[in-house]
Structure formats: structure tokens, C-alpha cells
């Protein structure tokens, strides 16, 4: 790979980091071509982009993007694959599914909405992570619940309240 091709790859990786906002760095070393192709197929089915790149090029892409990647730099050793997804949990769920059939891919690090997760022991946490949309939906549901209760009580007791107001007005008059 010549210098121009390396620069193109760094630019492409940096663009994907910016576009997706989420990426996972995994270890897929020592896997057969058949298993790598199966992982690529599963990634495609789950709307995940996967790339194999040298650690130095991944690091240069992160430096191009800017941000706090200091913790991630430490895991850039050995063979690395990088997964990009709009969903912060999709790659974690896929890795968990693939691990049922073997011990790889291993999670080295994940970067999700400016949060860094280091190590394979974080996989369970990442699988359970809720997306921004899910959290917003839950908050809206929680905020609507008390308002619905008040409106419901007012509607069901509307006749009683009107009667009380009328009675109080008559007493004053």
C-alpha cells in the first residue's frame, strides 16, 4: 500500500467516524477466511460496516477526527478490525451472537457518543445500553404519565368540581 492509498484510507476511516459517531475496535486475528467472510456477511445484514486496517492508520484517523481517544490508543495492538454503526448497541449484539460459535471477535474498545468502553468485559454493558431515542422515549412517557392522571381525574370529576364551584358561589351570594 503506497502513501496515497494510506492517506485515502485514513480519510475514509475519519469520515466514517464522524458520520456514524459509534465504532468498535475488535480483534479478529487467527480467524479463517471462512469465518471472516461470515462476520462480514452478518455485519452487512445488521447494517454494520467493518474494515480491517493497520493500527497506525486507525490512530491517524482518530487524530484527524479529534476528540478524546487517549484510552483507545492503548488498545491499538495486534490485529484490529473496526466496526461502524448508527446504533451504538448493534455491533455489541452481533459480537455476542458471533461469540456463541467461537471465542472471537474480541472487543478491544468501543466509542459511543463520546463515551469510551475498554476491554472485552464491557460487552455485556454495551449490549444492555439504551439508545438516545429509547431514553428520550422513556422520559417522555414518564413526563406524560402524571399529566394524563391529572387530566383523567379532572375529566372524571368534572361534574363534581363544577357542582362544588356552583355551591360555593351560591353561598357567597
TrEMBL record:
This is Large ribosomal subunit protein uL10. Forms part of the ribosomal stalk, playing a central role in the interaction of the ribosome with GTP-bound translation factors. It holds the Pfam family Ribosomal_L10. GO terms for cellular component: ribonucleoprotein complex; ribosome. It comes from the Bacteria. Keywords: Ribonucleoprotein, Ribosomal protein. InterPro entries: Ribosomal_uL10, Ribosomal_uL10-like_sf, Ribosomal_uL10_bac_type. NCBIfam families: PRK00099.1-1. Belongs to the universal ribosomal protein uL10 family.
Amino acid at each position: 500500500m503506497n502513501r496515497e492509498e494510506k492517506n485515502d484510507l485514513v480519510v475514509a476511516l475519519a469520515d466514517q467516524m464522524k458520520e456514524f459517531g459509534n465504532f468498535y475496535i475488535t480483534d479478529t486475528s487467527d480467524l479463517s477466511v471462512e469465518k471472516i467472510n461470515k462476520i462480514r456477511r452478518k455485519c452487512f445484514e445488521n447494517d454494520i460496516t467493518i474494515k480491517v486496517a493497520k493500527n497506525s492508520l486507525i490512530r491517524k484517523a482518530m487524530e484527524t477526527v479529534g476528540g478524546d481517544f487517549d484510552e483507545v490508543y492503548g488498545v491499538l495492538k495486534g490485529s484490529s478490525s473496526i466496526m461502524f454503526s448508527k446504533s451504538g448497541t448493534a455491533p455489541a449484539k452481533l459480537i455476542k451472537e458471533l461469540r456463541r460459535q467461537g471465542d472471537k471477535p474480541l472487543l478491544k474498545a468501543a466509542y459511543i457518543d463520546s463515551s469510551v468502553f475498554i476491554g472485552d468485559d464491557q460487552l455485556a454493558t454495551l449490549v444492555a445500553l439504551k439508545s438516545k431515542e429509547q431514553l428520550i422515549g422513556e422520559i417522555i412517557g414518564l413526563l406524560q404519565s402524571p399529566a394524563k392522571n391529572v387530566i383523567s381525574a379532572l375529566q372524571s370529576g368534572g361534574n363534581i368540581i363544577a357542582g362544588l364551584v356552583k355551591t360555593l358561589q351560591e353561598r357567597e351570594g
